């Protein structure tokens, strides 16, 4: 199982321009990955978390819940078509 990548990036990051992250997201999508790119309009490198904390927290919580649900679903025993169990 491959969890979906979540990319949180500031548009004005001086170390990694937003185009690099957009390109990464596009390549992942072409490979069939469920890539999520969330852009934050302000802040520098690694500062998305404190430019809009409520949004950042909401995105991370939702992502974490989704990944946990995916893992729980993958861990369930598969039902057999023949026996129903």
Explain the overall architecture:
This protein is α+β, with helices and mostly antiparallel strands and 85 residues long. The chain has a domain at 8-66. Helices cover 47% and strands 12% of the residues. It contains 3 helices and 2 strands; from the N terminus they run E-H-E-H-H. The protein has helices at 18-30, 48-51, 53-75, and strands at residues 6-10, 36-40. Strands 1-2 form a two-stranded parallel sheet. Strand 1 (6-10), helix 1 (18-30) and strand 2 (36-40) form a beta-alpha-beta unit.
Keywords for this structure?
alpha+beta, 3 helices, 47% helix
Write the layout of secondary structure elements.
Blueprint lengths: L5 E5 L7 H13 L5 E5 L7 H4 L1 H23 L10
Parallel strand pairs: 1-2
Short description:
By secondary structure, the chain is of the alpha+beta class.
Looking at the structure, what is the overall shape?
flat
Q: Which secondary-structure class do the elements indicate? A: alpha+beta
Number of helices: 3
Strand order across the biggest sheet? 1-2
Whole-number average pLDDT? 86
């Amino acid at each position: 199982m491959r969890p979906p990548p979540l990319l949180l990036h500031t548009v004005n990051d001086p170390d990694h321009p937003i185009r690099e992250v957009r390109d990464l997201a596009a390549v992942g999508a072409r490979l069939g990955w469920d890539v999520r790119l969330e852009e934050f309009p302000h802040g520098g490198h690694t500062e998305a978390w404190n430019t809009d904390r409520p949004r950042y927290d909401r995105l991370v919580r939702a992502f974490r819940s989704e990944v946990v649900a995916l893992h729980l679903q993958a861990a369930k025993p598969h039902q057999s078509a023949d026996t129903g169990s």
